[in-house]
Amino acid sequence: MTEMNENPLDLLPEVLLAASAVLGLLLGSWLPRVRQWIVGLLAAVACVAGIVAASVAAGKPTVTAFGEAFAVDPVTSTSRIVVLGGTLLVLGVSFHPLQGDPRETEFYVLLQLAALGALMMAGTQDLLLLAAGYLLASIPAYTLAGFRKDGPGTEAALKYYVVGALSGVLILTGITILYATGRGTGYPMLGEAFRDAPQALIATGTTGLLAGVLFKAGGVPAHFWVPDAVQGSSPPVAALLTTIPKIGALAALFRLGDVVFADSPLPWPALVAVLSAASMTLGNLGAFFQQDVKRLLAYSTISQVGYLLMPVAVAGRADLAQQALLYYLAAYTVTNLGAFAVVCALPRALTPDDYRGLAKERPLLAASLVICLLGLVGTPPTSVFLGKLEAFSAAFEGGYAWLAALAAANTVASLFYYLRWIVPAVSRSGSSPPPEGDRTARVTAYTATAVSLALGIAGGPVLGALA
Amino acid sequence: MLSALVFAPTAVALLLFALPRRTTPRVFRAVWVVTSALELALVIAVWAGYEAEGGMQYEQRARWIPSAGVGYHVGADGLSLPLLALTCLLFLACALYSLREGRRIREFAALFLFLQTTCLGLFAALDLILFFVFFDLSIVAMYFVIAGWGHQQAARAALKFFLYTFLGSLALLLGFIGLYLAASPHTFDMVELTEQNPLAGRSVHGALVLLAVVVGLAVKTPTVPFHTWLPPAHVEAPAAGSAILAGVLLKMGTYGFVRIAMPMLPEAWRRYALVLVVVGVLSVLHGALVALAQTDFKRMVAYTSVNHMGYVVLAVGAGAAAADSSEQARSLAVTGAVTQMVSHGLLTGALFLLAGVLYERGRTYDMGSYSGVAGAAPAFAAMTGVAAFASLGLPGFSGFIAEFQIFTGSLGPQPLATTLAVLGILLTAGLFLRALRQVFTGPLRLPEAPGTPRAFPDIRAHESLAVVPLLVLALVLGVAPRFLLDVIEPASRSVLELLAR
């Protein structure tokens, strides 16, 4: 075991985010209502500074902080950059609707805390820290889901909270059992202890653990909350719920598979592969006939978790797994946020039909929507295509060719519902979409689309850095 | 030079959007036609500088995504050069044909220019992922062409087209990944994969990869039983879209057979060649028989595409036959397959544009609604007649050269299959003659749809500018095919050498 390392600078991005959240809260109680945007600005500055700090840390060799509880390795560094970048985009789409809101500061603070929770989950190498990260990522998100205080919002928050609380209990139970089995909570230690531990105990503990992490990821079977929570909350919060917590959860799952369960008697890869297959298929089936665009994107995100779980399933068995997961996470985050940014830019358009004539009224916004949706399908040259290519390759390499084939079939099925949205948006006839809109969200949509395309076309250096 | 050829149309397409909204449609049309003409000139220059025996030429490589084994690599050889030239010619014909197109001409022109990039890029690509990128983008572009400018049922047909061909493309992608993982070091580069022959001696893996690749290409080609997306897509697409779909996009599948499947998976290809022969013959007969039963002119032409592509599949299957048949015969079959791709592109392109002329006058493709059109529009009747006779394989046209090579080359290795396939010629002859008789002879009768102009004006200048060069080239190829065959033959010999490994 390495000597205790308690240098807080290793956690600079997390520290920055936490400090900005606390400072923002204090600042918010003194600022007049019209100036509360300063808190949002502070959050954005913290995110940018965090991205810079994370990029600098990414160039250094891997270290662990606080004993072995927190690792600063490529997985953490990438997750940091993706989470903070995603948070910036969410800030972009929430800026306009929140202006002058009585709880503007609270929103920004909660957003930062949720992001911080995701960061903790991504970097943790210790079950207890994982539980702490889980709670930190969840509780602010419950509040955000009900932020609007209206009927659907309350329902969203309630459903999200109830399922979340249940998974919270399950994850803690699971961790307790695993602690009892492995006599420790650090991943490397557990990995060794599980090599010859009783299978039944590990299986029980893992079930609880998975329930919690899959809830955060929004994967089957803990996906029930996703459609209602996403539909009920405001578009910026929906954008947050479908991306930021996922990044942390999937990075955490990858670590678990790579370190803890790599040599355990549990058939971990097969288990994750089945969850992956179920997520992509059920998510797609659910999305088929949705009439609400947020709900459609919610089901689409469940199916995307399925694809994201493919490299997780082969963690440690395929060389490509890590870079596939990380690249796909980045690609998915920016593309999904791009699609949500378009939704945010047209808050009155609820169903795909409301987008009729968008191409004529706002060609650039329509182009962003088409590129992001085709990106979610995985059409080249967007970044999700490259992510899928890597994920398929990783699954093949790890011996899960059937999963790759199923994922390909699911990709085709997903075309159907994305096209149901694309077609009205580009068709010429029909009523024009609501002309009002919010410029910041539009700019965010263009930015996300551009990043998604750029990441796809110039993916070489990025992939190289992740390997 | 190839990169310029590939990306220039898209650059111009972006330029079109930079023009102010008030620009008159004439400017867009002019820019489109001029760009296509320059592309054709460029491809002729490429052809002029090409050395027939020189193998892969005009190669360009650039690092793209090295950590995923993907690179930017393009080049031209005897297999791709004829198709590059065909693509440029057909796109120019479509640009000329669309000189009267009024509906959102800026978007239409931009979409076609983008489509041209994807087609040229696919035929020039020497990296599997680059190939796949262009393959998928061509589907996206064609989807918008059908959905945006098609007839009444266009949305449905476009969706069907998209779903089918996208499914095919994903099967193809899985096959490509199989090839990539088998190679060491992992790579998607076609030239390296061809040299490595990574699946040699691994029969199960090889068979699965071949299955994925062949299914992907067979959907695009299309062969029986994956052809069901084709008739609605063709019928509902605008005339220029149908011409490109049949003339260029279908070739992507057959081109993939000779470019990817045969050289990279020789063992598996040889083992399962008989399956392809059977599929080819089924496509020939099924396509011809179903075409015979059509009353809709465009649908009939669409089914003859299934028939004509069947010959190609038969030839590439027969080319893999056991070594007891002569080298020369098999080489003839593969050369015939490539020639057929070019010939079919010219003739079906012309036929679909002529079908567009018919629809523009009478607002229906139903052959029963027309009669005696030859009297009202003699030039149109003459062109359709020439195209139909050329398409059924009359000597003196390119189709005859191609089919003669295919049959002569395949007869030795696959006598029974070839004999059955020859019947396809008979059927196509019958159905084209029947269609010509019904539409063009007898007393004049025109459909009476509401809003139809009663008169049937003869073919207009811009329409003949589009169609005549295609027919003339088909005639030239039929009379003096050497300049094309000199380019194709060395390439098809090298494909067979690779296949014999």
Q: What does this molecule look like?
A:
The complex is a heterodimer of chains A (467) and B (501). Chain A has 467 residues and is mainly α. Chain A is 75% helix and 1% strand. Chain A has helices at residues 12-30, 37-58, 74-98, 104-123, 127-145, 151-182, 187-193, 199-217, 225-232, 235-241, 244-260, 268-287, 293-313, 321-345, 358-361, 363-377, 383-397, 401-426, 439-457, 459-466; strands at 63-65, 70-72. In chain A, strand 1 (63-65) and strand 2 form a beta hairpin. In chain A, helix 3 runs parallel beside helix 14 (321-345) and helix 6 (151-182) crosses helix 7 (187-193). The mean pLDDT of chain A is 89. Chain B is built from 19 helices and 2 strands. Chain B starts with a helix and ends with a helix. The radius of gyration of chain B is 22 Å and the shape is globular. Chains A and B meet through helix 17, helix 18 and helix 20 of A and strand 1, helix 5 and helix 6 of B.
